[in-house]
Amino acid sequence: MLIVKLGALGDIVHAIPVAAAIRRAHPAVRLDWLVSEKHREILDLVPVIDRRLVIGDTGARRREAAGAGAGILDAIRALRLEQYDVALDLQGLVKSAVLARASGASRVVGFASRYLRERFARAFYTDVHDPGGAGMYHPDETHVVWTNLGLLASLGIRVNTPEFPIDRVESDVARDIASRTHGRYAVLNPGAAWPTKRWPPSRLGSVASALHSVHGFTSVVLWGPGEESLARDVVASSGGTAVLSPRTSIADLVALARGAALFVSGDTGPAHIAAAVGTPIVGIYGPTRPSRNGPWSPDDVTVSRDDVCECHHLRRCRRGTMCLTDIQVDEVWRAIERRLAGVRRA
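The chain above was modelled as a monomer; its predicted structure follows.
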């Protein structure tokens, strides 16, 4: 079987339960995953996958192969050599659908047109799952993890509890942070690919200060490519209660999240990794719906402006003033206290 989910990071995390469910239902199946080179690192930590096939800007190659990636035609030829029985397109793009069909699998499973990011992708599927059909849930109101798992109904696989099998890893970064903070730290993540998902850094700095004065936590501020200045702004406004994270790999991020007492973030890949490994989360949501893209655990807490947002799933705000800026520090702090109270009860 072949899973086609090329990116992005959070979307790949939300698809991991599909691989886990296939492995549980069919322990002997050979299960491969086609992923973009940019996002392959998280899949190296998912033990239920047999092979990771990597497609980059210049083509695709095996994760284990050396040298530059092959051309796209060579990638398709490599896929066809595997003789897949089933290919699942969880991406919903024409590109991903073409690659799934070009794999030569006798069954190519995807979503109905109205739930695809590019509707023409439907033409490449042999089997179609309609998440809203026959009185079923609406994907905008149901978590994307369940929407992805619904695709397995076409294969006779039913799932009661999603699983996120992600390896425990050793990390010098996480070990150093734990030593410096005596194991009492929160993680704050100010960055996001969309500007509409970024809460003001100065407010996160105020959260860091409150976490330190009330709970004794040092806050570790994450950053990714192009986000270091945002992270430094959080540290600068924290009154000395936050520290800048060093550059992190995905393995470092997994280890940091596992050791954290709390993870505060918008709708981003690192937050979804934290949710997958069971870190307590407070999510700050603007243009995306927590019901669909929020933290996985029912114990986690989100602060959202979903009910008033006019820019759902848009990278830029139509109004000029992002709804996320309407969320104040005291509202997020109340959410943090609720989440930490839940941890204490547990």
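The first strand starts at residue 2 and ends at 4.
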